[in-house]
Amino acid sequence: MTLSSCIRTGSGPDESSSSAEDTYPENCLSAGLSVAFPHTFLWILRDAAITNPSLPFQGEFVSSPHHPVSLCSNGSQRQTLLASLHAIEQDDHREPRSRKRNFHEIINNPDYGWRTYYPPARYGELVPEGDTPYSTVQLEEHQLWSPDYNTIDTASDRCSTDGRKSLATCLADANITVAEAQEMFALFSERMAPLIPTFYATDFGRLPAEPVYALATIYTIARYLPDSSINLASVVYGTSPGTPTQSVTTGPAGGPSSWKSSGGDRNPCENKANAVADHVFQCTSLFILQKSYSMLRSGLAFLVASLTIGGATSQKLTDDAYFYGQSPPVYPAPDVKPHGDWRAAIQKAQELVSQLSLEEKVNLTAGYPSSTGCAGMIAAIERLDFPGLCLQDAGHGVHNTDFVHSWPSNIHIGASWNSALARQKALAQAGEFKRKGVNIMLGPSVGPLGRVVTGGRNWEGYSVDPYLSGVLVKETVFGTQEGGVVATTKHYIANEQEARRGGSNKTVAVSSNIDDVTMHELYLWPFQDALHAGTGSIMCSYQRINNSYGCQNSKALNGMLKTELGFQGFVVTDWNAQHSGVASALAGLDMAMPVPYDFWGPRLLESVRNSSVPESRVDDMVVRILASWYHMGQDSKFPEPGFGLAKNLALPHPIVEARKSSDKPILLQSAVEGHVLVKNIKGALPLKKPKLLSILGYSAKAPDRNMVPSEGPSAWAWGFQSGNSSELVEGILLSENGVVRTLSPSGYNGTLVHGGGSGATSLSTFLSPFDALMVRADKEDTQLYWDFHTSDPIVSGVSDACLVFGNAQASEALDRRGLRDDYTDTLILNVASKCFNTIVILHNAGPRIVDPWIDHPNVTAVVFAHLPGQDTGKALVSLIYGEVNFSGKLPYTLAKNESDYGALLLPDLPEGNFVNFPQSDFSEGVYIDYRHFDRDGIEPRYEFGFGLSYTTFHYQNLDIRTEQRRLKQYPEGPILSGGASDLWDVVATVTAEVKNTGSVTGAEVAQLYVGIPGGPVKQLRGFQKPTVRAGKVEKLTFKLTRRDLSVWDPVVQKWRLQNGEYKIYVGSSSRKLPLAGNLKIGK
């Protein structure tokens, strides 16, 4: 039976049948066309099956190149299709988009730079920034003709026209002429291109499956027309039929530039284009749909449905020209200006640069692969005794090496609210970096700030509040650079989610769309503090800022950073975050990591020689880099770069001990102070020589393994000892293909000491909570029972207390799935139902909802233990046994329900018209976290700044005094590091007293909030953490600067100090503020 007879006799699936397979004759299936779908759509279909198994695919994919797939439509469906296409064309009054945007135009566009495209692991992985789905097909065709891509065989004996003739028969059976098929393709290329991004976004859950089939069908018909019908080059490259394809002048030898023009019947083996097409058609092993009965039944009619879904569907953006101008251009890049304590270092750098050749200068602007374990390396210039530079992660300890300490994460330091401790930790930590030969520490992080509550990297920062984050990052920069190591403050700026952070081969990176006021008053604030402290480096971020990539955003780099804030150091990319050559150089980027790829290196050298980039711009890049080296004193008695970082820790290598025993008290104290006690009733804590303790839950013990890998990435290197490292690997790989993956709520293989990703620390030694409890129990002869694996464990009826351990993990590359964990909640409730004194300890990388069990009468104490580093066990035991007092406070707001966070609970994903250009609109302005809860009258479970102690405190005697001199509205001081010098002038002083009304000594975090006219009800603008003995009083003094009381004026582009009345509040948290008064500025 022929395919045409199947169609004419009506054989095929019946509309009323529940199973097409039951009613479709097998011989009709066998008579189907052996058509290889174009590879682009094959991979789309495969992605659809992988990401959404519920789609109605009939059977599995197979790799046979001859498997039958039916592609024909009947005559009535053809008429419906053509009528619909004509109607859409008539309704479209826009100028048709040119299809002549070929690969040559893309790679020669200075906005994109130049990149070598290596054969991908799968088709469609490498798409230049700003490219469109249509030119993605062009790019893939270029890859197929690449001389380095040896998977395509064009031998003439592999060519055949059988399939093409069969397709012509299929068209005839459907009463579709060649001319009509050409017309369909022309309409498709103009009108259906906006629909393709939907498939590139892999958001198949929101779309019917049928348009995928339909697009594959129409493209295949256009691609594989009979010999005399259409030039393949014109289909792929947009040239007109009959036009010689020699006009397409790019591509490797033997590629499109050498194609013959079409005309008349031809042997498909006579030109390479058709030879390869036939090879793909007949010979290549591709994933083909095994069965597609619905295609035979409805065929191209499905395309009509996809076209008539709605106007939004047909209006999806495919070109980033729509966004041009949203980020204001600021040029040229300003040269560094010697001033302050950087003056001598900059002058030394300028002298050294004057001795360098252009080639040597260019070599200093990008990394190179080295034999060390450094994350990045800058090459040495031996003739001038410059040894090179080693850059290494991260802000919580030396990453991916041995013989170093695992320090508490920054969220833990944020919970300590101890600025002096932050500086002490940074100084000790810098010593380890220096002893390992690290010149540049890739931290600290104040971006993300924490706008998205489930953001995967929030734990790397200090707090969601810009003031608290700013104070702590300032002290961290001071301590790090006092230790002789360059601090790299990151990720600049508005990098607030992991989802789509760097884009994929299907979409560009998400854009953080943010107004100027919100930028300055919230996200820029802590970076400004870091610059005021003299940070030597700033790392630009992956995502776009107002639709311009962060590492080529001239407003962010040239404008805010180097002009407004007077930055004297250098800007380095996050790894692989560079998207252009000339554009990024002119926008203010100074160093590309980990290597220049084809953007810089020889290309930057060429750009200088052809005057695209002034050599003075390269001079400024290198001066900034070398000035940081000089400023830290690294030109004298600094270890050889990277000498203590082995490339492969599993192989024999020199041991370089970076730890110092004198640092251990700081290590322990920084672990202690980040614990926050949020509930303590019935005298549950501290423990008083208990006779029997039950230790329950997966997070009490150490992970099962702490082992370096023999090679490649590992759970150890990326901080997933307690979790499932495959989640990180899958998350990274899927994100490259446009699929958003979230992280499981908890790491069930042991306690957490840090988060995951490049910020993870390296464990040399550590005591888990269970290990430390065992040591204490042995000392006091306490009976211990434990169960780390059961969700409903047996509980001894004579337990003095049941300690239940859970965690809430987070990682780079993956946002958190949510703020709940059903397994852990069930564990806690099961234990509480059997134990009258249930104490919950959560090692959490961020907010974690507790309302399912927090009010249970048997849950007597709750501790947020955050991420304490290697001293987790020792710190916890010292706290719960009362050897030291709890003093931590929450650096975020904990809601009662996830929904209380509103739209900022989860990251923004591609949708609607912008599915190919993801948008994240910061429309909430400055109203995140407690500002949001205050404005909307939402009662939190535990407010920002909340934390309990074993003692109590009383606040008294508030006094507010202003400067008597007349204050001008705008600062007028010279621009120094961090901005106008007079922004830090003190304009008011607030004093108060805090009394310890309990029976034990404790440290109290006293907080000052200001209600600025026209702004949020209150904003943190001061804190102190005095230690107060029982019954004693300590005086508090808060100095308010011009910047603390100002608002950003977007018109004048300066901070404005308003005349009027300011509310002043002092207390123990953002909602417990017993002292209140007024501060008057101006008349």
What is shown here, in short?
This protein has 1083 residues and is of the alpha/beta class.
Distance between the termini: 97 Å
- Averaged pLDDT, please? 77
In percent, how helical is the residue content? Answer: 25-40%
The number of strands is 33
The CATH class name of the domain at 342-498 and 507-632 reads: Alpha Beta
| Global morphology | globular
Protein name: beta-glucosidase
Family: Belongs to the glycosyl hydrolase 3 family.
Catalytic activity: Hydrolysis of terminal, non-reducing beta-D-glucosyl residues with release of beta-D-glucose
Function: Beta-glucosidases are one of a number of cellulolytic enzymes involved in the degradation of cellulosic biomass. Catalyzes the last step releasing glucose from the inhibitory cellobiose.
Topology at a glance:
Elements: H1 3-8, H2 20-23, H3 26-30, H4 39-51, E1 58-62, H5 75-91, H6 103-107, H7 133-145, H8 162-173, H9 178-192, H10 196-200, H11 210-223, H12 232-237, H13 272-282, E2 288-291, H14 293-298, H15 301-307, H16 311-314, H17 343-353, H18 358-363, E3 376-378, E4 389-392, H19 410-416, H20 419-435, E5 440-441, H21 466-482, E6 486-492, E7 511-513, H22 516-532, E8 537-540, E9 544-545, E10 548-549, H23 554-564, E11 570-573, H24 582-587, H25 602-609, H26 615-631, H27 664-673, E12 676-680, E13 692-696, H28 725-736, E14 742-743, H29 769-780, E15 783-787, E16 801-808, E17 815-816, H30 822-832, E18 838-844, E19 859-864, H31 872-880, E20 919-921, H32 930-936, E21 953-962, E22 975-976, E23 979-980, E24 986-996, E25 1002-1003, E26 1006-1011, E27 1019-1024, E28 1027-1028, E29 1033-1041, H33 1042-1045, E30 1047-1049, E31 1054-1056, E32 1060-1067, E33 1075-1081
Parallel strand pairs: 4-5, 5-6, 6-8, 7-9, 7-20, 8-11, 13-15, 13-16, 14-17, 16-18, 18-19
Antiparallel strand pairs: 1-2, 3-4, 9-10, 12-19, 21-24, 22-23, 24-29, 25-28, 26-27, 26-32, 30-31, 32-33
Helix pairs in contact: 4-11, 5-9, 5-15, 9-11, 11-15, 17-26, 19-27, 20-21, 20-27, 21-22, 27-31, 29-31
